[in-house]
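Input sequence (394 aa), recorded before submission:
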Amino acid sequence: MANEFDLDELEAELSDFAASGKKTGRTPREERIIAGFEDIQRFVEEHGHAPRHGDDKDIFERLYAVRLDRLRDQEECRTLLMPLDHQGLLNAFEVREPQGDYTMTDDELLAELAGDDEGADIQNLRHVRSNAEKREAEEIAQRERCEDFERFQPLFEQVQRELQSGVRVTRTFIRDASIEEGQFFILGGQTVYVAEVGETIKAPNGESDARLRVIYSNGTESNLLRRSLQRALYKDDAGRRITDADAGPLFGETLEPDDIESGTIYVLRSHSTHPFVAEHRELIHKIGVTGGKVETRIAGADKDATYLLADVEVVATYKLHNINRTRMENLFHRLFSPAQIELTIPDRFGNPVKPREWFLVPLHVINEAVERIRDGSIAGVIYDPKSASLRSAG
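Predicted structure, token format:
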């Protein structure tokens, strides 16, 4: 029978349930005890305190409080769970309220929730959400309005432009499951931005995790665990990673179809007599990439509206190797788009033309951009027209 699953998807689906390489030799009862304790640990992590007794508490909190009491009382359980108790729950001392204060006693509560075959055994409870159900609920973190969304709105808009221009692309998440601060993803049809990553914590299964501040393109945010976001991206058929807008795709060891073995980035200045160009001549530049000679590329500039129907001078060139011409030009145009000049000039036949590749940017800023492309530090950088400088997008 044909294989119905993509191997990468199958691996991702099973990754959370993969057995540890170390043999534990635990009995089924010990595994149930550990699973029950992990439920309590997740409750503490979510609510910030140990489960408490009281008829005003949620039934699951009351259940966890009873279960924790039992685990603390039994030496066998304490010995088993001590190595996993990173929250100090087993050593904590709490004054237990008299049973008379409860609507239901501990045993009555357990009897209500326990299975018929094993009575009040703390490890066999019915009507309790399974671990799988809890993981599912954890993945759908509570979202709330992002009060400072104006800080992030420009980032979402920039990412959208970069996707359209090809500076960024989307990739299937399962090929790289890492999640770091400053990265973008697509989840549930929305763009997701990881604004903050908290301190590393130990998950109940012993693996590292961290609490994230995640901003969504619809103006909401959530505070969820990294592994929860990973699982949600795995399960979403349309879940994608958005690549960084860095120099990685521009240079390579092997040539791709649109690559050139060696190329030149060139910066031009126009001799146009247009009033605006004449006034700002030292700041107006055209940036391009060619695989041939620059002189050949600009020949006949005075007859080409692309060059403002005027002669041009080459004010800077940069030699590069194994570059993708389209992505390189898109990167410059994306970076300096806030400073793109709006000119309309008539071509040789009197038809209005709007050249799109001229920018009001000082030459030293273009030099800095090229150096940042070379050393890979261009990621997350934008051009600020007010200060005429490059700065971090954050």
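Checked by second reader. The first strand starts at residue 143 and ends at 145.
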